[in-house]
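Q: Got a minute? One more chain.
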Amino acid sequence: MDTPSKQVADALGLLSQRSLRRRMYAHLTQGLGEEINESTYLVLSGLDRCGPSTPKELATVIGLDRSVVSRHASALEKAGLIARATDPRDARWIQLSLTPLGQDNVAVMRSRLTQKLEEFLARWPEPAQQQFAEMLTALTNDKPFTH
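A: Always. Here it is, folded:
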């Protein structure tokens, strides 16, 4: 029998697989427009979580190459979902931010994710749901890999 740590490590490995993430992003972005898809999801979601950022900063946070972020940003800007402006910290830099339309679409995606998780967790007893939420939150807040 595997230890709890091994079980968690295996589960995290599965969650980090690209194929699983792409299926999840495809579900969350379905029907939101041509430019909002499993490839651009990370840019929109990252800007929502981080706030206005340079392409380099955003690329570091979401784990994509800066050129990929810039390419997606161009498409999202044309669709009116993000805006580019001069970064107030340095006029040589460009800062990306969500437009109100981008914020609205991210809200839809977050709602879909919450709904999907509610459907999944509904099969569990309430105390187990609460314990899982607390433990997952602790794992992400305590950041065991930053030390």
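A: Strands lie at 82-87, 90-98.
Q: Perfect, thanks.
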